[in-house]
Amino acid sequence: MSTILSIHNLSKIYHKGKVEIPAVKEVSFEVTQGSYLSIVGKSGSGKSTLLNLVGGLDRPTSGTIQFNGKELGKLNRYHLALHRRFGVGMIFQSFNLLPRRTALDNIILPLTFAGVPSRKRKQRATKLLEQVGLGGRTTHFPSELSGGEAQRVAIARALANEPKMILADEPTGNLDSSTANEIIQLLVSLNKDKGLTILMVTHDRETADAVSDSIITLKDGSII
Ligand SMILES: Nc1ncnc2c1ncn2[C@@H]1O[C@H](COP(=O)(O)OP(=O)(O)O)[C@@H](O)[C@H]1O
Ligand SMILES: [Mg+2]
Fold first, then answer.
1. Which end of the chain offers a freer environment for a tag, N or C, measured as fewer CB atoms within 10 Å?
2. Domain count, the chain
3. pLDDT score at 203
């Protein structure tokens, strides 16, 4: 089994005026390709910070993140943007869909940024919506979707450019428990059937236990 993500002594310190906020402290772990890893921990324990570092939304203060053979800290802005576009697909608690775009157009957008020709974009986005069980929702706007449907669109969008890894930050945090379970099952099937590596942040220890190959617990920015 090959390692897709290798994190070594990773730290992130935020600065608020003169105050230092160490959000992630000397964290090290590895993720095997095709595995399902969950990160649990209380609010403020550094989970989102860690995920954002892996997603290239933020840069480490120290330590290294090797993703698919590349060290993220050594990438210039352009190559870090490529990592965000093609390396990982991110999913958030609040879905983060563009409100003025239809479900289909929300998925088409990352394909446009990736330079996929217009006809192919539409074909691919349509197929992705079907894949997440939303074939009948192409022209719906986010406000016309239920929470579970909106998260499915966000998952389809995350898959658009065929990322190596899905980074999910509390993907069920805004959903009722049965809808949450459906979303988790969708992630499990992407992992089991498509071999996608999944790194999921969750509050929900029980779900993490049920679906993950391994679990990391963060406390005050450190692994315990
Ligand atoms: N952009 C930021 N600027 C300053 N402090 C931040 C920033 N983002 C997060 N933090 C702080 O870092 C710590 C970890 O936050 P976060 O990673 O969001 O935790 P979690 O996702 O586990 O709730 C918290 O103390 C939080 O207040
Ligand atoms: Mg968080």
1. N
2. 1
3. 86
